[in-house]
Amino acid sequence: MTAIILELLAVVGLICVNGFFAMAEMALVASRKSRLQGLAEAGNRRAGACLRLREDPETFLSAVQIGITLASVLASAYGGATLAGELAAFLHTIPILSPYAHALSLAGVVVPIAVITLLFGELVPKRLALARPEGLAMAAAPVMRALLFASRPAVRLLGLATRGVVRLLGFGGGGGEPAVTEEDIRGLLREGMLHGALEHEEHAIMERVLRLTDRPLDVIMTHRSKIDRIDIDAPAEETLAAMMESPHTRFPVVRGDFSQVLGVVRAKDALAGYLRDGRVDLAGHMTPPVFLPETLRGLSLLARFRQSPRLHLALVVDEYGDVVGMVTAADVFEDMVGDLPGLSGHEEPAMVRRADGSLLIDAATPMDEVAAALSWPRPWPEDVGDATLAGFLLERLGRIPAIGDTLAARGATFEIVDMDGRRIDRVLATPRAAEEETPQ
């Protein structure tokens, strides 16, 4: 009986060793590098040991796999060789089972050991590791470093064999995808919001910052039809009145229209000169205009503003050199944090939600913001990211719309409620049951 107990304890011990290696592997893989770095910088040596193990995942995982394989094989082999013999001797005493004693004893020992190994040697330890990855990784780090040192020759041999097999299979080129992609970060942000780690507005701001890299200027800028400009040939009274009535502080100065842009003037400089000299001297206070191509992306635009502290306003031109809009540092900031009427001078919010759940939307609003407000399921169509609502509607209608025209698209009905000449100004979006796109 004592021998059987010792044999059982040996099998249990091997299963525990298997569980320890499985837990250590999962804990180190699941632990967050940023948290370990913070602990290491605070003086935690075990956190530093974990970071060193993570630097060479191939070697670490090979060493762990050696430990797991040895423990599981030894548990099954030892149990089959010892406990199965004891059970077979007992089964031989039962006449009806005696012819099958060897097979039954082997199955009666190996199957329970396999089930217990799977449960307590794999699943439970890994679940514990996922619950507290950093703490368990640091607890296991000294043992894992010792294992790594002891098994280094075998690990190197396995590494060479593994790389050879991988090359034979045609996957030896290296390259591969980056360890963390932008979509991974977006997914993590969504998970954080769903689990309460991030507020909804925090998530929205971070999403806007991430999308800035791909945002074209025609989505961020103010369209030329909405630009408050100053004509250098206009009477002084008209110029002063325009500056006083506008919420903006800087104005492009033109001669006639945007075909001749002369410069940019600050309202306070022009007004101060008028109070001092009794005349409006636009030419004396102008700074040279800055032109940017409409192909420039949001992150590059932000870099331009950061590199030039005196640059506050730039005019956007198309491939023919014609001015199509204007962009300011405030526009970039708004694109990241959302609509700020007091900052940009736009008194009306871009979107107003009405009591019936519909949205009254400025047609210049980026389409991805409209899609988010309407709770459209992802993935969105490719043209949503780079289009304004007006562009989205024009592409689908295939013509210049009139007031009252509607379009059904992706679970919402869009109705044109205001036009500024041939430009769509305001749109009423009403959520509804999803249907095929049907212009009317």
Structure description:
It is found in: Cell membrane. InterPro entries: CBS_dom, CBS_dom_sf, CNNM, FAD-bd_PCMH-like_sf, FAD-bd_PCMH_sub2, Ion_transp-like_CBS, Transptr-assoc_dom, UPF0053_domain. The chain is α+β, with helices and mostly antiparallel strands. The protein has four domains: 2-168, no CATH class; 182-212; 216-342, CBS-domain (Roll), CATH 3.10.580.10; 351-439, 2-Layer Sandwich (Uridine Diphospho-n-acetylenolpyruvylglucosamine Reductase, domain 3), CATH 3.30.465.10. Helix content is 56%, strand content 15%. It is built from 19 helices and 13 strands. It has helices at residues 2-30, 33-41, 45-55, 57-91, 101-131, 133-150, 152-168, 182-194, 200-211, 217-220, 236-245, 267-277, 282-285, 298-307, 329-337, 341-344, 367-373, 382-386, 389-397, and strands spanning 222-223, 230-231, 250-255, 257-266, 291-293, 313-317, 323-328, 351-353, 359-362, 406-409, 412-420, 423-431, 438-439. A six-stranded antiparallel β-sheet has the order 8-9-12-11-10-13, with helices on one face. Strands 1-7-6-5 form a four-stranded mixed β-sheet. Strands 2-3-4 form a three-stranded mixed β-sheet. The longest helix is centred in the first third of the chain and has 35 residues, at 57-91. The chain is elongated, with a radius of gyration of 35 Å. The termini are far apart. 25% of the residues are buried. The model has no long low-confidence stretch (mean pLDDT 82).
